[in-house]
Amino acid sequence: MTRTYIFSGVAVITGAGGTGIGAAVAKGFALSGCDRIAITDLNPSSLNNTKEAIHAASPDVRLFVQAGDISDESFVDSFIGAVVSEFGRLDYAVNCAGVLGDALRSTETSTEVFDRINNINYRGSWLCSRAELKQMIKQDPLPSHGPAREPQRGAIVNIASQLGIVGQPGAPAYCASKAAIIAMTRSDAIDYARDGIRVNCVCPGVIETPMTTSSDEVRERLRPAVEIAPMKRMGKPEEVADAVLFLCSTFASFIQGHALVVDGGYIIN
Ligand SMILES: NC(=O)c1ccc[n+]([C@@H]2O[C@H](COP(=O)([O-])OP(=O)(O)OC[C@H]3O[C@@H](n4cnc5c(N)ncnc54)[C@H](O)[C@@H]3O)[C@@H](O)[C@H]2O)c1
User: Fold this and answer.
1) What are phi and psi of 205, to 5 degrees?
2) Which of 21, 54, 124, 181 has its CA 20 to 30 A from that of 70?
């Protein structure tokens, strides 16, 4: 029996442009032997950077690359349809696209700002996972890595946040959008367990990505959270990707509806 991941299916990652968590997940799949990977992001040039990085490190990987807005229902449905046309199926889906927003209390938050954050983070994740589930539910399962494990028809990992579990000053819309992703994950996990589909989420702490490092204001805003966490550092996107790959793999065959916190201990303090 092998002791390494077998990613013989097709992976899809949203928010995969640039140097953030989605890009680390896409590269992680390629380095772990997944040879059919679809990536999307709002930003075509950062998406192209991820494509080039994967091709340079893993030249045998077949990539499907399409830029678009995951808060747009028609884009999401056509993107997932195009992935299935290209690769025939969809096995590991990682819904990572998201936005943080400015530091605003509720009384300072406009309805437009609230809607933008929730349309991308919560509604966008739901649109993606719904399209992914529609494909997964009708495909044959793939064998697992060992005889004691059930075959797997699909695995979805939604990227929530530690801020879906605990609060933070000036982030009501963001925190609520991430709590909604955790609740959605649990509900889908219940509904699709009988189909051999696992649905989980990862709740990152403060991770060193463009979202957290692109401005001094955001770095300053997040400094207390880094200091509260027992490990007292930002996590790396690759450390989140490791957790995501585990949850997608059949090594997580009995893990369902879980919110796996990857935060250097922040929420235990
Ligand atoms: N970095 C952190 O500290 C942290 C902590 C907890 C959760 N998260 C979550 O992790 C996920 C990835 O964030 P990151 O830190 O890698 O940030 P990032 O900004 O590097 O990546 C987010 C990506 O999503 C893309 N995106 C934004 N809106 C989109 C849309 N409408 N359609 C398609 N793509 C869109 C962006 O272009 C970007 O490439 C997000 O959901 C974020 O909320 C991040």
Assistant:
1) -85, -145
2) 54
Gap from CA of 97 to ligand 1 centroid (Å):
5
Output the CA 3–ligand 1 centroid distance in Å. 31
Give pLDDT, residue 1: 54
Q: Can you give the residue ranges of every domain in the chain? A: 11-262
**Of 186, 178, 180, 179, nearest in space to 156 by CA:** 186
**How many C-beta atoms lie closer than 10 Å to residue 108's C-beta?**
11
Is 266 an active-site residue?
A: no
CA-nearest of 147, 145, 179 to 161 is: 179
Q: Which pLDDT does position 147 carry in this prediction?
A: 87
Tens digits of per-residue pLDDT, 164-189?
Answer: 999 999 999 999 999 999 999 999 99
* Rounded Cα gap, residues 251 and 245, in angstroms: 10
Superfamily of domain 11-262: NAD(P)-binding Rossmann-like Domain (3.40.50.720)
Pairing of strands 36-40, 11-14: parallel
Ligand 1 mutation pick, 209, 215, 266, max ligand atoms within 8 A of CB: 209
Q: What percent of the chain has pLDDT over 70?
A: 99
Q: Counting beta carbons within 10 angstroms of the beta carbon of residue 138, is it exposed (0 to 12), middle (13 to 18) or buried (19 or more)?
A: exposed
Give residue for tokens 């890595």.
145
Among 5, 92, 122, 174, the active-site one is 174
